[in-house]
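Hi W., the 2-(butylsulfanyl)adenosine complex you wanted:
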Amino acid sequence: MSESNLPSAQTEQAQAATEAQALRAQLNRWAHEYYVLDAPSVPDGEYDRVYQQLERLEAAHPELVTPDSPTQRVLGSVLAGLAPVRHAVPMLSIRTETDIEASGAQAFDARIRRELGLTDADPPVEYIAEPKFDGLAMNLRYENGRLVQAATRGDGEVGEDVTHVIRTIRQIPLALHGSGVPPVIEVRGEVYMRGADFERLNERQRAQGEKLFVNPRNAAAGAVRQLDARIAAQRPLSFFAYGLGEVTPPEAGGPQFATHDALLQQLKAWGFPVAPEVCVVHGPAELVAFHQAMGARRAELPYGIDGVVYKVNSLTLQRQLGFVTREPRWAVAHKYPPQEMVTTMQAIDVQVGRTGKLTPVARLAPVFVGGATVTNATLHNVFELRRKRVRVGDAVIVRRAGDVIPEVLGRVEDGSVRRPYVPNFHMPRACPVCGSAVVREHGETDHRCSGGLFCSAQRKQALLHFASRKAMDIEGLGEKLADQLVDQALIHSLPDIYGLQVEQLAGLDRMGEKSAQNLCDALEKSKRTTLARFLYALGIRNVGEATAKDLARHFGTLDALMAADVDALMQVSDVGPIVAASIHTFFAQPHNREVVQQLVAAGVQWSDAEPAPAAQLPLAGKTVVLTGQLPTLTRDEAKDLLEAAGAKVAGSVSKKTSYVVAGAEAGSKLAKAQALGVPVLDEDGMRALLAPEG
Ligand code: IVH
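Structure:
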C-alpha cells in the first residue's frame, strides 16, 4: 500500500460509516411507520431494497455493524438457558377489583377519594384508563438510548433475560428515536400475540402437522422463553408500553413527567407502541363507561384483554397514594368475566350435522364460562383433536366468547402428572344415527355420513336450518318439534313441511290445538319470502347467508341461477371454484330440483328482481356500520335494506368505513367514527342514501 492511498482509504471508510448510519436511520423510520404507526410510507419492496443495500455495506465493512442495526435483530447462537436478572425496581402487580360490575369502578374511585381526603365539593379525579392486555409483562432496559436488556417479570424481583427474543420484535426499537433520551431508562409493557397472528401461526403449525397452541397468551409465553432467536423470530409477537422501571432521576438529567398520560406520549415519541384505546377520563361514571365500551369491543379488538386498568393520572397524586405491600394504591384492574375456563373432559361423542358432517363433541363437567354453563364443546374434527392432544379424562381449557359455539382449545399441560392409558379416539365407520357408511373425501378433514336425507340427523338439521330466522323464518319450529316430525315420519323431505295439518300437529308432544294453529299460521306466513332467504334455506353446501344474497342479486331469478354453469357462477363476487362447484352440483341433482319445484308448488314465493349490476346500486362499494337502536328498524332490517342497496355492512369502524348509522345508546363505535371523522347518520339519513333523488 503506498502512502498516497491512505487518505482516500480513510475517506472511503468515513463515507461508508456515514452511509450505513443514514441507511439505518431510514430503515428504522420506515419500520416504525410500518410496525408501530400502521401507516407505511413506502412499499415493502423499497424497504427490502434499502435493507439489502445496508446488508451489502455491512458485509464489506463488518466493523460498521452496530447492535442496533436492523440487520441484527435475529442473533445466531442458541442459548443453553435463560440467565436470571434482578430488577433494579421491582415489577409490581395490580390489585384486581373482584366486583366485575360497574360498582367495581365506583368502589375504586371512592377509595381513591377517601385516601386523598377529597370531599364531595372537590372535582372528579382524573384517571387514565387502559386495556388490560392478556400477555406477559416485560422490562426493557435502554442505556444511552440503546436496548441492552429485556427481562420477564418472574417473581417481580428476579426475572429472566430474554433479550435475544425481544430483539426480534419489530415493534420494539433497538435504539430510541428522537431527543431527550436519558442515560438509563427502563420501559415496561406487555408482550402479546395478536389474534390474527395467532391464527396464522396455528395455520402453519397445522400445515406442518405440528402441535397447536392453545391461545395467543400461551403461544406468546412459549415464544418469549425460546432459546433460539431464529425460532422466536418466526413467532409473531407484539408489544404495548404502559409504564417505567428504573430511570435516571431528573437531577441527573432524567425526564420529569407530570402525568401518566404525558409519560405515554413521550414513550410514543421514542418509538414505542401505546394502545390507541388508552384514554384520560374523569370520575367514576367515565371509568364505568370505559369498562363497558371496551367490554363491548372486546371481540373485535386485534389483541386479547381480560379487563381494563385504571390509574390515577397525576404522578404527584400517585406518589402521595403510594403502595400497600406489592401493589400500588393508585391503580386497579377491573376484569371481565372469563371466556376461558378449565374443566374435565368426560367423554367424546359424535354429532351429525345438516350436511352430514361428523363432529367430535366433548362432554364436559359443567363449567361457567363466557356467561353460561357449558357441558358440551366442539372439538372440530379428528385431526384438530389429535393436534391438540386431548384425551378423555384430561383437564381441558374451554372457550366461550360471544355467540361463538364453545370449543375445547387444548389440555392443561402438567408434565408431573402421568396420564393413564386412554385409547385414541377414532371416528366411527358407520353413522351413529343411521348406520350409513362414513366417508372422508380425499384432501378433506371432515368425515361425513353418506346417508344424505335418509339419515334422520341430517333431515332434522336440514329442517331446522330451513326454518331458522335468517332462512324461511318459521316461528315455533325448534329442536324438539323437528325431532318429533322426523322421528314420527311426518316429514321425509323438506316440502312435506308445507303439507302439515293442524290435526296432525296437535297430536304431538307438548302441542295443543292453539300452538298447532300458530305453527300452521307461521308456515303460511313463511311462504312469502325473498330469493336470497330461499337459497340460503335450501342448505346448499358452502352457501351461507352472504353468498345467498350475492347470488340472488346477481341472477335475479331462480331459473337464471339454476341454469348457470360453473363459469357463470364464478362471475358472482366472492364465489370461487369450490362454492361454484357446490352450487352447480346441488342443482344438477334431480332430487334437489324436485324439492325446489315442490316448495314452489306449495306456495313459496318471492318477487323477482331485475339483476342489478352491483356498480349501479346507490351504495355500491360503500361500507356501513350500524350501532345503537334505530327508531323504527331492527338491526337485521336495516342490514337487509343497506345490502339490497349494494352496501357492505361491517361490524367495526375503521378508516375505510363510509358511514356509521347510529341510533339510541350508540356506544364506542359512534365515538370511534367521530374520532376518525367518519360521517355519522341517523335512520332518516340512512333512508335518504337508500333512495337517492329521482
Ligand atoms: S401496569 C404497578 N398496565 O397486569 C402497575 N399492567 O397485575 C404495573 N397488565 O404484570 C402494571 N395490561 O402484565 C399495567 N395496561 C396495563 C396492563 C398491565 C396488562 C398486566 C401486567 C402486570 C399485570 C399486573
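The first strand starts at residue 84 and ends at 86.

W.
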